[in-house]
Design a protein that fits this description.
Number of strands: 2
Distance between the termini: 37 Å
Helix content: 55-70%
Number of domains: 1
Largest sheet: 2 strands, antiparallel
Shape: flat
Number of helices: 4
CATH topology: Helix Hairpins
Strand order of the largest sheet: 1-2
C-alpha cells in the first residue's frame, strides 16, 4: 500500500539520493577514509582507444573507503534503488529494461563513453 503515490515516491527518491550524497560526504569529511581532489580533466586529442581515454581521466577520488563507510553508502544506494524501482512500477516501466536501454545507448558511444 505504501509507495503508490507518485508524490510520496518522488520525495522519498529525492531524500534517498540526498542521503547517498551525505554518506559519501561523511566518508570524506568525518572519517577521512577517502578524499576528493578535483581538477580540470584534460584528454589529449590523439587518443585512439577507450582504454587510453580512461587512463587520462580521473574520478577525483583518492583512497579506499573503510568498511563502515562502505556499508553505509551501500545501504543508501540500496534505498535509492528501492525508490527508483517504485517509481518505475508506478509508471508501468521495467527497471531492467530501462537499464538495458541505457546500457545500449551508452555502448554506442564507444570510447566517448567515459564511465
Amino acid at each position: 500500500m505504501r509507495h503508490r503515490s507518485i508524490v510520496d515516491i518522488m520525495s522519498k527518491l529525492q531524500e534517498s539520493v540526498a542521503r547517498t550524497n551525505r554518506a559519501l560526504t561523511k566518508a570524506v569529511t568525518n572519517c577521512g577514509c577517502v578524499s576528493i581532489k578535483a581538477s580540470r580533466q584534460t584528454v589529449p586529442s590523439d587518443l585512439s582507444s577507450f582504454q587510453e581515454v580512461r587512463e587520462h581521466m580521473s574520478s577525483h577520488l583518492e583512497g579506499n573507503m573503510c568498511e563502515q563507510c562502505a556499508e553505509v553508502l551501500e545501504s543508501e544506494i540500496g534505498a535509492t534503488l528501492f525508490y527508483l524501482t517504485a517509481l518505475c512500477n508506478v509508471m508501468d516501466m521495467n527497471l531492467q529494461d530501462v537499464l538495458s536501454n541505457e546500457y545500449k545507448r551508452i555502448s554506442t558511444l564507444g570510447y566517448f563513453n567515459l564511465s
